[in-house]
Amino acid sequence: MSKNEIETYQITKSYRGETVVNNLSLTIPSGCIYGFLGPNGAGKTTTMRMLVGLIKPDNGSIHYQEKELNDNKKELLKNIGCFIDIPNYYPHLTGYENLKYIQEVTNQPVTEVNRVLEIVNLIHAKDKKVREYSLGMRQRLGLAFSLLNNPDILILDEPTNGLDPEGIREIRELLIYLSKEERKTIIVSSHILSEIESMATHIGMINKGNLIYQGSLQELYETTTDAYTITVDNPEKVRQILQEQSIPFRGNHQIVLDISPNEAAQINEMLVNNGINVYELTQSKKTLEDVFLSLTRKDREIS
Ligand SMILES: Nc1ncnc2c1ncn2[C@@H]1O[C@H](COP(=O)(O)OP(=O)(O)OP(=O)(O)O)[C@@H](O)[C@H]1O
Description:
Blueprint: E1 4-15, E2 18-24, E3 27-29, E4 33-37, H1 44-51, E5 59-64, E6 67-68, H2 73-77, E7 80-83, H3 95-105, H4 111-119, H5 135-147, E8 153-157, H6 165-180, E9 185-190, H7 193-197, E10 202-207, E11 210-216, H8 217-223, E12 226-232, H9 235-244, E13 255-259, H10 261-273, E14 278-284, H11 288-302
Parallel strand pairs: 4-9, 4-10, 7-8, 8-9
Antiparallel strand pairs: 1-2, 1-3, 1-5, 5-6, 10-11, 12-13, 12-14
Bound molecules: adenosine-5'-triphosphate (ATP).
């Protein structure tokens, strides 16, 4: 198996002269959970529609294990399960009957229906009519659709949208299970950053159709600094020392520095050597939300 399951090369899509996905090159390693992040209207759904062949890029190409999507559509799509918008269910039919319909149309073994209902934890509700399902149950039924035929790749557009914390937790645990136990490669989009943070191994962030970050979650944390708040006996003198040393800081009432743990130790020592009593040096880890906002801010400054 190739190291990268999915690669896009500079894909672009415009609607009525407006570019909504711009030269986007994504690299999605095999077996990862790739959190695809971006604010509303960033181009996530459009990208995912291109990934599953629902729409074609105007430029660029999409490859699954080095095979071009357009040239091998039938073969490749068999191995991709997707959840882009909640499927149109037959509300008067049960969950089981809805899945059975698709199973028959797509000519899959009948055992697939119970298998996927078990995975998404709907087996107990399989004989309930879909119109009686909660939103969370409908979302999970949508995931069951994507799991029919046991694809290696799952492309899921905001599967936690509109769910309560319990529903979100269930989907998160399900995706972690599918990744770890069933070795699936999963692309999952969201604008709930903390959600993605708790399950993704890799991150792609887009803003206005442009890629602003891509890499492992680990790398993202390593390349970003933490915020340190310092409490001292003489804040005025500390501000003066920091200015003299050209060390940037922020905060009106408190002194906050965006620095690495090593730099924090050095600054602490330097302040003590200057006769300052340092009462407290508190580290607050940046959340993905902080990182995202600072990256989009940078992107805005550039554009
Ligand atoms: N079929 C279409 N025709 C015209 N414009 C479109 C079409 N599909 C998407 N757009 C526009 O493309 C932009 C990106 O939309 P897209 O749905 O891909 O973003 P998104 O990141 O998924 O946003 P959200 O989180 O709100 O779902 C939006 O400005 C949207 O209005």
